[in-house]
Amino acid sequence: METPSTPAEPMLWSGWGDPAKATELPEPVRKLLADFLGVQGPAAPAATFGEVRLPAAALPPAVLAALAAITGAGYVRTDDDARIRHTRGRSTPDLLRMRAGDGSDAPDAVVLPGSHDEVAAVLRVCAEHRVAVVPFGGGTSVVGGLVASREGFAGVAALDLSRLNRLVSVDVESMVAEMEPGLRAPQAEELLASHGLTLGHFPQSYEYATLGGFAAARSSGQASAGYGRFDDMVVGMTVATPRGTLETGRAPKSAAGPDLRQVILGSEGAFGVITSLRLRVRRAPERRVYEGWRFATFAEGLAAVRRLAQDGPAPTVLRLSDETETLVGLAQPGELGSSATGSGCLVVAGYEGGPDDVSYRGERAAAVLAATGGVHLGPEPGEKWAHGRFDAPYLRDSLLAAGATVETLETACFWSAVPRLYEAVRQALTAALGSPLVMCHVSHVYGTGASLYFTVVTAQTDDPVGQWAAAKRAASEAILRAGGTITHHHGVGRDHREAFGAEIGELGAEILRAVKERLDPAGVLNPGVMIP
């Protein structure tokens, strides 16, 4: 077994990632926000860590003692620091509540098991004493996936999996690595790099999210056009449930009934806790090339990226920003307010692999992009995107501090429905918020369809949480009416649960409830999350 040399630093408790990267917006950008959106500053200053209001811890001493007997007393924490840092995820409503000092959703205890057997034992104790359990990886959920319902439970425990952070084995012949779920993505890449390998999974949450979280939420990375989604990479899992251990994945593919991996993938901790992952890996690329292209309109850009997705050659990275996102410069967060590509729509295309393969695919894709109306902008826009690809959440923190409500939502549909879905969501957000700035990009492409990722900025009202809740409802209704899925890669959590129920219908919801009842009869695993 191998463990990472790089420690997993805690995230900022009231924002994203590294506190040192949260910077104040430049004055010209603040002026633009005031002039065009009416942003005047937050209604109240953000609370400090010591001002967070926490409910009294509710777990009985006997339960705490039973948990400590499993993990060791040092790995059952009830101090304020641990409880605050395991409160909610990183959606804008989550952050607005924390900035207001509202710690009402804090767990009563944080439990840090060190093995599969310890996880299983913790689940048995919690089921026996009716303690709700929230599996906790990197804390990056943006859909309310880390807030358990308390009603009917003796308390809530956050199950922090950060001690399960080992590379267990590498099968180079099969190109499969067994890894534990608490590994953060950069740690996993560090361990695999020593074997000349990579997962190739780089979502915007890459710096802080964990492998277990990727599987539990069906994550999709920015290089999914080349490497595939995370659920494509999972060839096997070990899962602890209150009823026992589930092992899935004996072969790459099988006709032995429905694939039980698919029951756990996307289940967000409601069916069990993933304690080991067998993952398909790739050779680490020898060369990476990113470049920019400009298209006159979003419709022309859509036609170009669809042709590449359907006919090839497939770039490793393929993204298309609409006119507004291109003009504002959000595709390159460090240059907000100053587009480096002029008018039109920016396409970022990237190629990773061996030198000959990168050259071959790049040349053939360039011919397609040029033939469909694209203007080559050279490597600079692509390299700037690659350099700042994980920075947008920090920009959100800065915008929140300036008094703007800013949030994202995403969806997906078949190609024929993309224009209708795009307009429906934009119109719904505009109607709900007045005159917001609504930006969009195609974040992932497939032969049959694509995902749309929206970013919304507007001036905060006196009730910014309620303000966004109304906009989110309107957008969710528009997504379902236009034929889209309620989420492409963020997951269901609590925020999408009602719309998810409408999407799958009552029979689909009954199937999920039946699986839940069989694996978790006491209902202690992440209650209130995902299942309609």
Q: What does the secondary structure layout of this molecule look like, with pairings?
A:
Blueprint: H1 27-37, H2 61-71, E1 76-77, H3 80-85, H4 92-99, E2 109-111, H5 116-129, E3 131-136, E4 155-160, E5 167-171, E6 176-179, H6 185-193, E7 197-198, H7 211-216, H8 224-227, H9 230-233, E8 234-241, E9 244-248, H10 261-264, E10 273-280, E11 282-283, E12 287-295, H11 298-311, E13 317-321, H12 323-328, E14 345-353, H13 355-371, E15 375-378, H14 379-387, H15 392-402, E16 404-414, H16 418-433, E17 437-445, E18 449-459, H17 464-481, H18 497-519
Parallel strand pairs: 2-4, 3-4
Antiparallel strand pairs: 1-2, 5-6, 6-10, 7-11, 8-9, 8-10, 12-14, 12-15, 13-14, 13-17, 16-18, 17-18
Helix pairs in contact: 2-5, 4-17, 16-17
Protein name: Alkyldihydroxyacetonephosphate synthase
Binding site for substrate: 396
Domain FAD-binding PCMH-type: 103-284
